[in-house]
Automatic annotation (TrEMBL):
One Pfam family in the UniProt entry: TPR_16
Keywords from the named record: Repeat, TPR repeat
Keyword RNA-binding appears in the UniProt entry: no
Protein name: TPR repeat-containing protein
Species, as recorded: Pirellula staleyi (strain ATCC 27377 / DSM 6068 / ICPB 4128)
TPR repeat windows: 160-193
Length: 324
């Protein structure tokens, strides 16, 4: 799926805490919450034992790196943050910004190394631990990810993101009951947590508890104003409804999602599949045609279009042969 919530795809890392503070550890693929972390004597990131002019230069470079990140210019951001680190190696913000930029550019090994340094320089700030743990999770280092989650919880047991990270690790290890327990702890501290709520629904689906999954997704949908439910939530609702063989209801959810994200070929393809299951090949054909109009190279839609055409030919031939 290309449609996303604040987080991204539940399989990709959430934005990393960085330069001006810490980003919401899981708000994906989706709204950045920035908090300024300062001490009475100023930002703790600037503990650098360097001349004032070098500290000032590092700060200016970090600001320029932040601006480049916001513009999506990750190569420039990497350059600015790397220069800031050279000016002041103990600047936590610069280390974190460099880690994020490297990560976005696909250099994960170096990104992890710099985030490890950022954790050390932060004095083992639990928020930084969560960000490092998410990196470990993304590269498949599950024991390390779990360790960071546990250490963050030990430091601050009310951090919903730490419990969520713990749940994500258990979910990947197929330890579903433990994952649910951690996710529910996260929700106890943060009731509206879309990524976690969808993860809970996914676990229920894996456990073949489809009604619980549907209830979870619908409770999340109810937390949004009418007509503003994110496409990803509607999509996930449709998947559960399809599992329950409620194809018409699933089609309605996908129609609502496609209205909010009209350029998504994937949504229209899924709508076509559900309409076929509902016994409505005419609507299914229209939906898959719309999907191909948005993305002619969408292979699944191409296959569906060919399948619908073959089915229509069979019906037409059968009808012709039965005429007197």
């Amino acid at each position: 799926m290309r449609v996303t919530l604040a987080r991204t795809d539940w399989t990709t890392i959430a934005p990393l805490a960085c330069q001006a503070g810490s980003w919401c550890a899981r708000c994906g693929l989706l709204v950045t919450l920035i908090a300024v972390i300062c001490c009475s004597s100023g930002c703790r990131a600037l503990r650098c034992r360097q001349p004032d002019e070098q500290i000032s230069a590092a700060r200016e470079l970090s600001i320029r790196g932040t601006d480049a990140q916001r513009r999506g210019q990750w190569d420039r951001a990497e350059q600015f943050y790397a220069s800031a680190v050279q000016q002041c190696p103990a600047d936590e913000r610069a280390r974190c910004g460099l880690a994020e930029s490297l990560w976005q550019r696909g250099n994960r090994e170096q990104a992890v190394a710099h985030m490890e340094q950022a954790v050390r320089l932060s004095g083992s700030d639990p928020l930084r631990r969560i960000q490092l743990g998410q990196m470990y999770l993304s590269v498949g280092q599950l024991p390390r990810a779990l360790e960071q989650a546990d250490l963050a919880i030990e430091a601050n047991g009310s951090l919903a993101a730490a419990w969520a990270l713990r749940g994500d690790v258990f979910k990947q290890e197929a330890r579903y009951n433990e994952a649910l327990a951690s996710y529910h702890r996260a929700l106890a501290h943060q009731a509206h947590y879309p990524d976690v709520q969808l993860a809970v629904a996914d676990v229920y689906q894996k456990q073949d508890r489809q009604l619980r999954a549907l209830s979870t997704v619908q409770q999340l949908a109810d937390q949004y104003p009418p007509g503003q439910t994110p496409p990803l939530v509607l999509y996930r609702e449709a998947l559960v409804l399809k599992d329950l063989k409620r194809y018409t209801d699933a089609a309605n959810s996908l129609l609502a999602a496609s209205r909010q994200d009209p350029q998504s070929a994937e949504l229209l393809f899924e709508l076509s599949r559900v309409q076929m299951l509902a016994g409505d090949p005419a609507s299914a054909r229209l939906s898959v045609q719309a999907a191909l109009a948005r993305d002619p190279s969408h292979t699944a839609s191409q296959a569906m279009f060919a399948e619908l055409g073959t089915a229509a030919d069979r019906v037409s031939t059968a009808s012709y042969r039965t005429q007197p």
